[in-house]
Amino acid sequence: MKRALFWLLLDVQALFALAYPESCFYLPWLLRALYIVVACAVVKTVLDHRWILWIVNDREARVLHGLEHATISVLEERGVPVVHGYTQRRVGFVVALEGEQPREVSSVIRAAAETAIARVRAGDRSLMYAPDCNTTAVVAAVTFWAMLVVGGACGLALGASAAAAFAVTVTLGHIRAATRRPLGLLAQRLFTVGAPFTSACVIDIRPFERRGEPQFEVRVAVQVATHGGPVIPGIG
Description:
about 60% helix; alpha+beta
C-alpha cells in the first residue's frame, strides 16, 4: 500500500511538472538528490551481496546455489518454515528455519536436499531458480541506476527540461518495477545459478545457531561436468 501511494505521488508530480514546468523550479535539485540516493543504494547493495562477484566464475558454487534454491522449495512444499538460505563457497549451503525445531528436522532437511537433487537430475530445473533470490535485488538496483544514467545523459544531450527528465525518471522507475523479477530470474540463469554437473550428493547436515536463528549447514559434494561426460544441465 505504501509503495503504491509512493508511486502515485510520483506520477502526480510528473504530470504536474509537464503541465506547469515553470512552477517546478525545485526539480533539478530533486533529480540530483535522486541520482545520488540511487547511486549510494547501488553501492550498498553490491557490497552487501558481494558474493555475486565470485560466484559468477565459480561453476561449483553456482550448482550449489541452485541446489540451495531447490532444497528450500522442497522444504516449503512440505510445510517446513524456511526464513532464508545462503550458499557457502566449495562447501554447500545453509538453510535457516523459523523458531525452535525438533531434533529430527536434520533428517527432514537431508531428505529434502536429496529429493531436490533427484528432481533436478530428472529435469525439473525450475526448482533451481528463486524469484526472491538476492540476485534479483542486485540486478534491480544496478539496472535502475544504469537506466537513470542513460536517461539523464540522453536528456542532457537532447536539451530536455527538468520536468521532462523527471517524467522520464518516473517512467523508468515503473519499467524497473515491472521487469524486476524477470530480470532477476534471467540473471540467475546467466550468472549465479546452475552449471552442468554429473553428480551431487549430500554428505552431512550440521545444525548450529546464528543470531538466535536455527540454521543447518548442508554439505554437498558436487562433480562439475567436463566436456564429453554425462550432463545435468543447470541452464535451459
